Structure to design on (420 residues):
């Protein structure tokens, strides 16, 4: 009886560690070899686990892909979104979202750059739950950006007449180009260009409306 | 003797047709399934040719990939670059390059959007001749853009103080985001956003310097 709970705890803990190791490897691999490249066999070989061991965690490739996206969302939240959410809503938070994204690219959080830029480019023409989930993540990011543009407009720190959706499109364009260019050419000037262009695009900070 | 040349001509012509059919299929497939997805078996099955038939044209996957990039370059030249080269150098040609790119995305010249945006995202972390070739094509495109920015600056139709390389980075950001967003969300507003943002970024045309 005494050994039971201890053993169950150890088993659960080992299981959680394996689960995390699988998803860590899968998120990294997906940015290099594609989300379609993370077969159960490929991930198992990457972390030195048997295919049957991996099958005890994920019974299909799609289940592994969906869990990998969820794991990448958690990393994105920790690395990009949450630090920006500590900043005041509006223009300051919008700038922090952009800055954290560029820092996440620069620090190579994933070896193949932004997980979502990379996998969205891979899945944009493949209907199904994987594409639906990637669309939802990217749309959610744009929604957070747009909410902060609107708050900044209401606060008078961005021009009220600007088209908020178009401004978010332009900011995302600069963030994604920085990611793509930095990866392809390994040239940090892409990050400098993006930072300078974002600062220009947002313009000088104006005094908040009273 | 009489049949000889005729037969050789027919053979050569059949061979050219097959060669073209292979590369047509390969460029299209590469934008959907990736340049790594165009195995000889996959392309052969797509066009209903035997693997051994396809091997008579391309003896390795990498040879097929390199020829596919070359074929896509020819399509890109015809669809995007050459029509713009008919316009006067400088600002007019720069605007035509952007407009032709967005038209090429909108018309779905490739089913998976811009061939080079798609394959660069796939290969950016894979060293070798395929990545080197994709880098060269994208760098060549940016060089053409930048030459026209500089000409426009010399002609006084773009501000002389603008950083030409950064302006090209920003224009490419808008073009690539339009491509990616249009593909992922199937929403033509991405093209409208890009067109409006490019017009804003270039600013009102000023009278040429005398």
């Amino acid at each position: 009886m005494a050994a039971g709970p201890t053993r169950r705890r150890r088993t659960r803990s080992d299981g959680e560690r394996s689960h995390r190791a699988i998803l860590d490897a899968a998120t990294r691999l997906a940015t290099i070899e594609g989300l379609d490249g993370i077969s159960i066999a490929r991930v198992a070989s990457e972390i030195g686990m048997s295919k049957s061991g991996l099958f005890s965690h994920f019974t299909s490739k799609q289940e592994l892909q969906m869990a990998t996206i969820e794991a990448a969302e958690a990393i994105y939240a920790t690395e990009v979104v949450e630090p920006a959410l500590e900043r005041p809503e509006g223009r300051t938070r919008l700038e922090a979202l952009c800055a954290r994204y560029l820092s996440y690219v620069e620090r190579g959080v994933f070896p193949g750059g932004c997980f979502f830029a990379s996998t969205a480019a891979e899945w944009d023409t493949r209907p199904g739950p994987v594409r639906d989930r990637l669309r939802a993540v990217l749309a959610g990011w744009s929604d957070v950006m747009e909410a902060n543009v609107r708050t900044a407009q209401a606060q008078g720190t961005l021009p009220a007449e600007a088209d908020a959706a178009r401004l978010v499109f332009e900011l995302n364009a600069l963030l994604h180009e920085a990611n793509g260019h930095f990866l392809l050419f390994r040239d940090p000037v892409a990050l400098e260009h993006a930072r300078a262009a974002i600062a220009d695009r947002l313009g000088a900070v104006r005094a908040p409306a009273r």
About this structure: Chain A has one domain: 3-202. Confidence is low (pLDDT under 50) at residues 1-7 of chain A. The interface with chain B takes residues 31-32, 34, 36, 111-113, 117-118, 120-122, 124-126, 131, 134-135, 138-139, 163, 165-166, 169-170, 172-174, 176-178, 180-181, 183-185, 189-190, 193-194, 196-197 of chain A (CB under 8 Å). The domain at 3-202 of chain A is CATH 1.10.357.10 (Tetracycline Repressor; domain 2).
